[in-house]
Batch of 4 targets.
Target 1
Amino acid sequence: MAQFSRVSGSVGLITLQNPPVNALSAAVRQGIVDTVNKALQEPEVKSVVICGQNKVFCGGADIKSFRGVMTGPPLIPMIHAIEASTKPVVAAIEGIALGGGLELALACHYRISHTKARLGLPEVTLGLLPAAAGSQRLPRLIGITAALDLITTGRHVTAAEALQLGIVDHVTDQNTVDVALKFASSVAGKPLDARRISLYPCPPSDDTDALFEEAMQRVRRSARGAIAPVACVQAVRAAATLPYAQGLEREKELMATLFTSGQARALQYSFFAQRAVGRWSMPSGAQWDTVEPLPVQKTAVIGLGTMGRGIVVALTQAGFSVVAVETHEKQLTQAKQAIEEMLIRGAKRRGVTPEHDTITYSHSMEPVANVDLVIEAVFEDMVLKEKVFQQLSAVCKPGTLLCTNTSGLDIDHLASKTPNPELVVGMHFFAPAHVMKLLEVVYGRQSSPRAVATAMQLGKKMGKVSVAVGNCLGFVGNRMLKPYMNQAFFLLEEGASPELVDQALEEFGFIMGPFRMSDLSGIDVGWRIRKEEGLAVPDQRTGQIPRMQKGCRYSPVGDLICEQGRFGQKTGQGWYRYDKPGGRVARPDPWMQTFLNQYRATHGLVPRRIDPKEVLERCLYALINEGFQTLEEGIAAAPEDIDVIYVFGYSWPQHRGGPMFYADMVGLEKIMDRLEHYHQAHPDVPSLQPCNLLRKLVAIGSPPIHKWSQVMKTLRSQL
Ligand SMILES: CC/C=C/CC(=O)SCCNC(=O)CCNC(=O)[C@H](O)C(C)(C)COP(=O)(O)OP(=O)(O)OC[C@H]1O[C@@H](n2cnc3c(N)ncnc32)[C@H](O)[C@@H]1OP(=O)(O)O
């Protein structure tokens, strides 16, 4: 809806009304058309202000409506009618002007913004482009380079930057609508042609071809196969090279392709999935809207290795006071310096003053006594963690929440070492913890709903996308990674090279394939865990690590690589070779080829040609199958939880939605058939056997992803 009122006799005020973000639903668009007509027809009205209810201008098109048939007046004619108005129209921007919201403002003759407003064209993040003339107007207003930046990244700008770029005419910290009304009154009757952006020529650049060539290359490099950023460059190019009307036609054409693409569907699903994970629930029925989090102001981080340092930075940047504990004096000094540097760099990037006075460094636990919440981030070793939890239990005030940053150890076991297991939860951060957006909040059998609510809220305040998951080995993310990595190892045994496997998965859209990723994070990390699990241990009789363990196929290739001291980038050699220890550029290593040939010969494995399709199917479908298993067990509450974890923690390409969304797109029946096919070929790999939930979903006709929860409920109630 949009409401019309007349202010001071001669200014028509149009207020968009569609909480919470005044999205341009069919009713709002109809309201704008009607109220603009009214303003134009009423002779007393000499100028017009458009604003949004509740100090929010407009969050753009109603994304929910993209799923159905579009009804109501179309956006473009509405926007053109505003620009063509003979009475000046002023946009009073408070809160946000995003997507169609900013395009609406660009059709107005003047834009006045509150200092705290944020503006942007984020359509690209939804797999679209600004197709209500935004791709044609913005370059005409602010130039090609700046428009390309905003449109291809979708980033939001502050009012100050918008003023500097020329997107808005004036910024105020007063009541924006009052300022706009006064201004509208002052420009009544003034000529408007110079204010109609569609009439502007696109500002020329020195070498338009080179500029677009460079932009296209940059975008293709970072897009990982996403098509919207490429279409955005093409649309801006149309603005720079074609008359406005033809540019609009091109914009429409490009949008038509994007709108119906699976990528747009995936990205829009991902938008809502990110919000859905905030509405967490536990098997007990406790959930986000019924549980009050505990108040947290003072925090502590125990252990200042890479993870601990990142967590201290993230907590400090979120405004918490932090006691940073490291028992080794030398490590404490190094950590302090590294943390200060990270804070300075972060503050510089955000244009604020670094906040280090809120950190207390200590080599003892004493200052932790009065904190509200502790995050333990010591080495991934259960005995060490148990010891730390016992110390914390002795020193902390009653009611302190004890969180562990383990990437997969048993939360229940750790909780059992404290007198208050209900106050123990896992907070699994991803490295680097001050950068990566994902946080898995892991509840154990005894974790109280308040403890979970508190960790979830803390994550939100730290700017993380937090997902509540149940306790099991590896939780959701690392648990699903295991069958994926196993398949990658098996493929090496059967004839693939690390390059072939990585390339297939990187072409799919992962930033790095499993081997380049493992070189980056350190191959020895998994080796240590496998040794602790009793897997990477030579048989006393043969002296070799068995290739069958507990009745299942096991590949020791990663263990054998580690035995050679090849730990990845840090040692300059891993699955690839690097020019020096710590080097970043991975090059295929002839040594690896020889090693794999010898390994296959030793075990009587005849190498065969493996194509990228098999790599994708085996690695991804095994991972997806494990995802279904976590849903079946209730470790993950919903497919959105898994998808958010994979997009934000494991570089799953966002334009493919996440593993479970991808499974829905591929078709559950196909996934099940291919898994069965591979399981027949590899009966000693149980993770290739389709799990119950997948079978059940296929049996009832493969319902779409939003209906899976219902089946999961039925399945659990039958157990
Ligand atoms: C014809 C095609 C034309 C396309 C042009 C477009 O305009 S495409 C849409 C462009 N707009 C956007 O991409 C904005 C998307 N929204 C956001 O980035 C953020 O929601 C926000 C506006 C910055 C607000 O963030 P905040 O953290 O304050 O709140 P939430 O994100 O939790 O949002 C609150 C609820 O509002 C829902 N919502 C937000 N934007 C839209 C939208 N454009 N359409 C529909 N619904 C929207 C959001 O889903 C939240 O509701 P939940 O029920 O909690 O999910």
Target 2
Amino acid sequence: MEVAVIGGAGTIGSTAAYTLAIDRPDVDLTLVDVDVDAATGHATDARHARTLGQLPQFGGDGTTAPVEGAPSRGGSLETADVAVIAASVPRPEGSAQRGGRAHFLERNRELASTIAGALTERDPLPVVVVSNPVDHITHHLWRETGWDRRRFVGYSLSETARTADRIATLRDVPRGSVYCPTVGEHGEHVVPLFSRLTIDGERVTLTEAERREVREYVRDVPYDVIDLRGAGESSRWVTGRGVARLAGAVLDGGFDGEPVSLSVPLDGEYGFEDVCLSVPVRLGRDGVERILEWDLADDERERLDAAYDSITSAR
Ligand SMILES: NC(=O)c1ccc[n+]([C@@H]2O[C@H](COP(=O)([O-])OP(=O)(O)OC[C@H]3O[C@@H](n4cnc5c(N)ncnc54)[C@H](O)[C@@H]3O)[C@@H](O)[C@H]2O)c1
Ligand SMILES: O=C(O)C[C@H](O)C(=O)O
């Protein structure tokens, strides 16, 4: 089993690759980047980290699949079972402030066309898209490749983690006890589904003030993280872990049947067509196995409509 991380020398690509190297020592990793030296450097370092954890004196079982760097050419993807697309132009001006993902759109769409060309040199494979603005880039890659829409998933799991984190703080409960999926745009119009919120498996209703606070936190915190760290670094840890879990889940045929929210091409689901936004899906080895159409509360439906309007009006 092999995962190719395109943009593997970048902050997100290298962190996702490192996380996969540790979590899944059985998976071959190829870090593909235009900066092949940096990709090879990260790959070598991650391979050493993988090796360390698998040595007998540390309780490992010796499993160490290859981790390599590779140039950004079609041939580098030939043997992959899953492609992660984290390639990006450098962070443009304005992209480190609220609403900033939109500033990547024009140039990352051009970059995505190049990557679509490399992808179509081989048979279709599941593609995990991370590059921003992720709803647009996922849509663009799908359209440019002409592949079955079920091959494409845009990564948006960080919102689900951020939502749980804030609710746990507000209610003073352990973070892992909170279940609250998020749908909508990876951006201003993210929609936590409070109608599905449970804490320790029990249904919980937040006040309107709490809901507003959670929404604002999820919308703003990635920019606080960028600001605190310095503009060169976005949310590498949550994204690296989330992307690694997602790529691993596709290799495994899903999250044990559990739905997760991802940005996927829609063809009538929720009344939307020819657009990518986050909705609950079940994953399989080929990508999306099923899109789930959940009943939403009235205000959640309105917010999802606003997400659709926001994405389609920015094209
Ligand atoms: N979806 C999410 O939740 C989420 C989270 C964080 C970051 N992002 C986005 O992910 C992208 C990557 O972020 P980053 O911080 O790692 O950026 P980065 O600038 O650190 O890395 C981008 C990498 O892409 C490489 N690259 C450029 N063109 C390429 C090509 N044609 N082929 C292969 N590689 C190429 C660059 O050399 C660089 O190594 C950005 O668009 C960012 O906004 C999305
Ligand atoms: O990279 C960014 O601009 C933010 C990123 O999309 C995130 O959600 O962490």
Target 3
Amino acid sequence: MASKHTVQITIATHFPIKLTANDLPISHPQWPIGPWSTLKRVYKQITEEKQKDLESANDPSTQGSLDEEQWGLVTWVQDSIKEGNLKNIIDSDIRGEISLKCLKEYVKLAERCLHNSPKHRPTMAEILFSLESVMAIQEKFNNSLQSASRTLFGRMVNLFPFSSNQENSVQGDLNLSTNSKGNNMFPHMKEVPAHFPSPSPILKEFRFSDLEKATRSFSPDLILGVGSFGNVFLGWVKENTLAPSKQGVGIAVAVKRLNEESVQGAAEWQAEVNFLGHLAHPNIIRLLGYCREELEHLLVYEYMPNKSFDCFLFSVIAEPLSWGTRLLIMMGAVCGMTHLHSNNIVSRGLKSSDILLDKDFNAKLGDFGLMRRCGSETGETHVSTRVMGTCGYGAPEYIRTGVSFDCKCDIYGLGMVLLESITGRRAMDAQRPKGQKSLVEWATRVGPNLKKIMDPRLEGSGSDFGGKSGTSYGFYGSVPVLAGKSDPSFPIQKKKVTPVFLRSKAHLHPRLNTFGVVRIRLLTSCALGQLIAEKYATALSDNTNAIDVNNCAVDVEVTATTEVLKDNDVVIAIGAKDAEFIADTLKYNNKISTLDLQGLDKYGVGRRQS
Ligand SMILES: Nc1ncnc2c1ncn2[C@@H]1O[C@H](COP(=O)(O)OP(=O)(O)OP(=O)(O)O)[C@@H](O)[C@H]1O
């Protein structure tokens, strides 16, 4: 903070702008940016001259001449990487758990998401695919650690305070002690039961007096958290009727009550009811109901016993989350966001506090007040004052222009959370020393010195993948089916998968000359499926409707990537380059045998030749 009344906020590509205290109507530790008018004024301050400075600041060749304060936390990350001091940037709580290769991939992914140019950011499918690869690498690493520890030699090595795996491990130790897998912070509270009625499209309209009862008159003791919308209270309702109940009886719910001062809150409330009321996905918070009486606006959600990701990443009190759990949480968040995007909805500012955690640390996206339907002409009607999202998470192009928020802006926010998850540092923290305030700048500067950005709390903790197997990570609707259970709230729409690709085959027909072949079940890997579908959609831009990309994103199964190709599997032709890419990738993960060009029918669909 520059003075008592002036704060320094870094916007756009982290160019510092001076604002007075009046410009920041809400005092919040995460520095939410003020009203739209303020933001517009802020943008005006970025003169052409400053824009030029900004461009030169982004030019790596000029980085050395920058005022250190302009770079913030990301600068710190960049510096550390350049110095070859990777350890510094990694949360020490997870250091011992991460393989160097995994760390590199993860940071590379974050960097790509945080690219200043939206067109260079990856697609959601690519992000999913990269995260799956990171998990596969990590799992291999965990297995190697475990088998090492199972051998006599390994057990002996474990007796010594040094590592036998120095080269590969970021920390280089063999510490397998189980770290926090995420215990319920409030174990005495009951969770929303699995058979809870589906939120969509029927939402309960609560009476204000009922919510008053459910939250003991909005008792300060029951505040779960505070956002710019207002306070979030813990409440109790009866399981079947959702009528108010005594504390500890029935089921716990989270009740968000709009602040009277919140200017745009009513619009956000409406957006939340409109969007969230119609979304059902395992990685998206369930809205159970709402209340609107006179000036009161409230929302009632399923209760998430472990609150939000930020509570663990930045808290000195909470037990640190293991690297495996963090990865699983990020995968869940990415799946949730993919679902949003596949419904043409952008979240307009994902941040770690929007990733809520259930008792098993499954991630669910919350905070939908800023959501907007892409391409909707009326979409801007409920744009809130928080249109920029929280400082530090906003995509540069959006901050510059303030218009046309799209999926790529969301991906920027996601990149920031990826970085936070590995460093254990906030995207923007005014308390940090000079040069470390902005995470993105810090991380970019650290360059190859990845260890430095890792959350120090990751250091020395055991390798832990949350007990999930490599084939099914638990983020997709298909998982309950794979596990032999069926969750009626999120039925797997397996049947949808095949039509998606079969529909596309006719359009592939004229392009069969140089095509490779990939088994359709491989294509149905969630990330891979959409990646290919997106590629099809681009290639067939004259007829993009041929591919229902929306259905590919979330309604596909994820089992196939580890299976070997079987006789009679349906295969589908794809462009030679894509085939090469996929085959290479899968071979790299030891998950596929060579593919064959023979046996295609006229639509490019065929069977594997032995
Ligand atoms: N369903 C829930 N269950 C448990 N805790 C919750 C729930 N929803 C929100 N919280 C807690 O309340 C806090 C405030 O949530 P809220 O969504 O209002 O704001 P935010 O996302 O933190 O910030 P902002 O409003 O600035 O975007 C969260 O960070 C989380 O810790």
Target 4
Amino acid sequence: MSAPLTFDGKVVLVTGAGGVNDLGGNTKGEGKNSAAADKVVEEIKAKGGKAVANYDSVEDGDKLIQSALDAYGKIDIVINNAGILRDRTFGRLSDLDWDLIHRVHLRGSFKVTKAAWNHMKKQKFGRQVVCYTLIIMTCSAAGIYGNFGQSNYSAAKLGLLGLSNTLALEGRALNIHCNTIAPIARSRLTQNILSADMLETLKPEYVAPLVLWLCHEQCEENGGLFEVGAGWVGKLRWERSPGHVLLQKNQPMSPEAVRDQWDSICSFQDSTHPGSIDQSLMNMLEMLSKEQADEGLVANPTSSLGNNPAMAVGYLYEGHENFACLPTFGVIISQAAVMDSGLTSIPGLNIDVTQVLHGEHYLKCMQPLPTSGTLVSKASIVDLLDKGSGAIIVINVKTYHGQQLVCNNQWSVFVVGGGGFGGKKSSPHTENTVLPPSREPDAVVVEATTKEQAALYRLSGDRNPLHIDPNFSAMGGFKEPILHGLCSFGFASRHILKHYGNNDPARFCAIKVRFVKPVLPGQSLRTEMWKEGNRVHFQCKVKETGNLTLSGGYVDLYEEANPKSLQPAADLQSGLVFAEIGRRIAASGPALVEKVKAVISWEITQDGQTAALWTIDLKSGPGALIKGPYSGKADLTITASDADFMALVQGKVNPQQAFMAGKLKLKGNIMLGQKLDVILKDFAKL
Ligand SMILES: CCCCCCC[C@@H](O)CC(=O)SCCNC(=O)CCNC(=O)[C@H](O)C(C)(C)COP(=O)(O)OP(=O)(O)OC[C@H]1O[C@@H](n2cnc3c(N)ncnc32)[C@H](O)[C@@H]1OP(=O)(O)O
């Protein structure tokens, strides 16, 4: 049998239920009697434990906690259990019935927990010994499912679950866990309600073991909800149907649409179990983006790269013909996968997210990052290193655009204080930093960051609170929020690309860097560069302090622009081809123009595969806005205003000039293939 769980030295406050804190009133909260609490204290002492009774109301939470502090100097565990009943059907429920229940259950738990919270926080900061501090909320099946005659009680109990869920999130980084149980147990509350037979099986002794486990320092559970009683324990979670996207293009959402899709909305086939607001939102966005992709709009809000001004190389305007992504944005694309990789649940490694820093990064781009589209990233944890002062988790992420591998990332996540577990110090799987040549740098660029820089990078998708929230960064030991690693790293790459790569993202092959010291918003970065063949070694210093902030860095450049890159010539060519289609349609006379008021598909092939599949939607009238691309395999965009498109179709505008003037935009990887002719012939037959 495994070792018994012990709670040596732990100070626990149990409210209510004839526990160590109990007013001793009746089930309606009337009267006051010290006997209930005293009896439990005697029982504990008789078994060799230590306990003191407290008779204050839970609404005086600070007094309760103070008595624990006076007696034992600390508080480790709070079990919010106090409760009363004032059952009435809703029509007969008085304000007093409502208020009393809420005051004892919800406000009481709030007051007690609030009084304990800062002590628990301090304990975490004050000691290096990991001391689990836990709060247990006692909810009720009535709160979860509702119960006849208990509207006041159900509302308060479910309120406790909401309180507990949020405390679980806020407490996670502080090592404060918060779980909720919905027990069915024999107690002073239930003895008048349940039959004698039922009561026989519902002993508090069958609930307490779950509470003990949830309170134990080995238990990692946080934010859980459990039903327990009669020797049975089960966990509850939310289940959500995939739902139905009702909003259709150009149509208002209507109640009739809700009625018509009711079965689909309520069907739990392929349901999900969102465990957090983020997951809930992600599932919903996934549904929406699937729907949009079906409609021909390629978008995925999580990896939509459209308007990220901070990422543009030299051009901040997404309408510019050379608008492109800074290659280092590839880091952000992979970040969500890193968060999902399970790194916070590596067995034996207790990760405090306030102590997580970007240690090193390697990024290789196989092709320039698309400026819009849906990208899929897959992460795997490849190694765990013990660096003494910290642990390093090495995570590889591959990012795909359709079938094509767009970039590889290797994250070295440095967990401050996570080392010393006797692990290995280095890994054969990591890309290593390289020291620069020992001569003076060949080139130096200095550029100031702004005070708002972190907010700007946050808008670019890196949403770590460490960079924006003073409370969070204080927990990490920083006087103020520090800049994203992506920021210093992004500045340096921009300097290198500008100086040695003609500002062309297609020249960017790979980058490796170590983050050695944080940078603060407003500080200036000095990038020192050494060119050796196609490799540019670099390091970065903070100008104001002279501190090295990025070390051992290098950027590898492609000799020529990456052959798979976007070529302005190809864009132009595709513009001409596109206009040619329009010209031929127009030349064929009004009958054809009329007929193609449906949807025209235009496919471009490359290496025998579909490189692009455009949809020109003329359904809503001549010259309707063209949407594109519609293909999982290529990222191509065509846009033109109604007027510009019609002008092109009618041959009134020189397509080359329209293209150069930005009135017609096409981007993509184009090689003209057989398919084009075939489709044009098909048109001719119409
Ligand atoms: C869950 C979420 C996942 C998401 C992750 C990231 C999300 C991002 O938003 C986070 C960020 O952007 S954070 C901002 C950028 N990063 C930084 O500012 C970190 C700066 N670096 C430091 O402070 C220290 O190097 C520090 C503190 C990292 C190390 O300093 P020390 O503890 O003093 O270490 P030191 O004594 O110098 O060396 C000990 C061993 O560790 C190796 N090492 C040091 N710095 C390293 C680093 N940055 N990366 C990798 N290894 C590093 C040393 O080489 C030494 O190992 P060895 O003995 O084997 O040589």
